[in-house]
Amino acid sequence: MERSFLIMGFSITGKELWIIMVLPQLLLREQIEKNIFNMCKFILYTLLHFVPGHSVIWVEKEKIKSHQKF
Predict the structure, then answer these.
(1) Contacts of 12 (CB under 8 A, 6+ apart)
(2) In terms of pTM, does the model score above 0.85?
(3) pLDDT class for 68, splitting at 50, 70, 90?
(4) Cα 12 to chain center, whole Å?
C-alpha cells in the first residue's frame, strides 16, 4: 500500500526538529487530508506559539505539495 508522509518541522536555536506521521494513502481523501493538516498545524502553532520561524510542510510521495509558514 502506498503511504504518504505528514512532516511537521520547526527550528529552535538553529536545530531542526521534525515530527513525522505516516498515513495510509486511503486516508488521504481531500477533506480528511485538509482536516489532518489543519489539526497538526493548530497543534504546532499552539505548542510553539512563542518560537519564531516554525513551519508546517506537507510532503506526499517525496514531493512538497504545499508549505505553510506561520
Answers:
(1) 51
(2) no
(3) very low
(4) 17
